[in-house]
Design brief:
One of its GO terms (cellular component) is chloroplast. One of its GO terms (molecular function) is 2 iron, 2 sulfur cluster binding. InterPro entries: Cholesterol_7-desaturase (IPR050584), PaO (IPR013626), Rieske_2Fe-2S (IPR017941), Rieske_2Fe-2S_sf (IPR036922). Keywords: 2Fe-2S, Chloroplast, Iron, Iron-sulfur, Metal-binding, Plastid, Transit peptide. This protein is of the alpha+beta class and about 400 residues long. The chain has one domain. The protein is about 10% helix and about 25% strand. The protein has 8 helices and 20 strands. A 7-stranded antiparallel sheet has the order 14-20-19-18-17-16-15. The chain has a 4-stranded antiparallel sheet with strand order 4-5-6-11, with no helix packed on it. It is elongated, with a radius of gyration of 23 Å. The chain starts with 7 loop residues before the first helix and ends with a helix.
């Protein structure tokens, strides 16, 4: 703790994020080759900071915005009946009054008196996360010191308090970002109340750190796997794998790409975890009647081949502003095999996004289950980023 401090930026090394994600249709293959799902490394996200005002502790304020939609229909939609994208209809939506999945809690540094902090960004708003050693709570504040607007993410915890690396001011997350130590201040002097952080509402639910970006106090709780996921509510019964990756394209493109199974056989032909060009075929895609609203929609899909065999659908749900869930029984009701996935798409900055991908599966043979449990993480990383690299080459052009 008393050793010479080195800025995280100077220590930081960029890594390629390993990832294996082929979209909805490849999840079927995932049931036979689940062990190829990776655990990537993390890398810094470029962010912007705004100068702090001299006002007392408060939550940041944001303007409203709207979510444009190509349709407002609530009747079933098949792949042949999708309305024109030229539709001028819109669905009002406040992007700021929402919870955003910032990171998996397991990706944060282990709590200690001198742990490093974690920079994040939502819509270009630079913030910093840190975890208390005393109670394990995760705190979030704007990434700007109220003193000279230095980036707090360049600092670290000292004696359990967030310390600015510029002048050594320390802030207490448990006391709503209150400044409790200024080295240059006389011991008898009082610290100004305005010398505090702009804190964000932050909660950890089911291992995911959520940040509220709204103007006022949260009106809802962070999303959970409950409800629509049904049998997956009790995640303790499933083998789970979490990983996240930052991508060089916009949040909107990320969501569109993940709900598009039709490109898999073409774009990822002969790619491990991808598809085969000769298997490109029609899809039966249905949006559930009455499900479409500003909060999202539910539906299901299957290939023409699966339809001819009267095969099961893959069910999916989109929950605004960026959660895609799916579940299925790839071998039918007679098999104990069940899989599910939750994909959290977060807007970092303009042209950059983050994906948090969680998979869960049950009903595997005991030997395969054991092999998956014992497989070293580094083996799952081999060649695992190729699919998203292939997507990025097309999406960013």
């Amino acid at each position: 703790q008393n050793s010479k401090h080195t800025s995280p930026t100077m220590r930081r090394i960029s890594f390629v994020h390993p990832l294996l994600l082929a979209g909805f249709i490849s999840i079927i293959r995932f049931c036979d080759a689940w062990s190829s799902v990776p655990q990537p490394l993390t890398s810094p996200v470029p962010t912007t900071r705004t100068k702090s005002s001299s006002s007392s502790c408060h939550h940041f304020r944001h303007p409203e915005s709207t979510l444009k939609s190509t349709t407002t229909t609530s009747v079933p939609i098949t792949s042949n009946d999708i309305p024109s994208e030229s539709s001028s209809n819109t669905i009002p939506y406040n992007w700021k009054n929402q919870w955003y999945a910032a990171t998996f809690a397991s990706y944060l540094p282990n709590p200690s008196k001198s742990a490093e902090v974690t920079p994040i960004s939502v819509f270009g708003n630079a913030m910093v996360l840190w975890r208390s050693e005393d109670n394990g709570e995760v705190y979030c504040a704007d990434d700007v010191c109220p003193h000279r607007s230095a980036a707090l993410s360049e600092g670290r915890l000292r004696d359990g308090k967030l310390e600015c690396y510029y002048h050594g001011w320390q802030f207490d997350g448990e006391k709503d970002g209150e400044c409790n130590f200024i080295p240059q201040l006389e011991k008898t002097a009082q610290i100004p109340k305005a010398a505090c952080l702009k804190m964000r509402e932050c909660r950890t639910v089911e291992g995911i750190v959520w940040v509220w970006m709204g103007e006022e106090a949260p009106t809802t709780d962070p999303p959970t796997q409950g409800g629509w996921m049904g049998e997956f509510d009790n995640l303790e019964d499933y083998i789970m794998n979490d990983f996240q990756i930052d991508l060089p394209y916009d949040h909107s493109y990320l969501v569109e790409n993940l709900v598009d199974p039709a490109h898999i056989p073409i774009s990822h032909d002969a790619t491990s975890g991808g598809g085969k060009r000769e298997n490109a075929q029609a899809y039966e895609m249905i949006v559930d009647q009455g499900s479409m609203s500003s909060n999202g929609f539910t539906g299901r899909y299957r290939t023409a081949e699966q339809r001819e065999k009267n095969g099961d659908f893959i069910e999916f749900q989109y929950e605004a502003p960026g959660i895609i869930r799916q579940k299925g029984m790839p071998r039918g009701n007679d098999s104990p095999l069940r899989f599910g996935a939750a994909l959290h798409c977060m807007p970092l900055t303009l042209g950059r996004s983050r994906l948090l991908f969680r998979t869960f599966i049950t009903g595997l043979p005991p030997l395969l289950k054991l092999l998956i449990t014992l497989k070293p993480k580094f083996l799952t990383n081999l060649n695992s980023c190729k699919i998203l690299e292939q997507d990025a080459a097309l999406i960013t052009t």
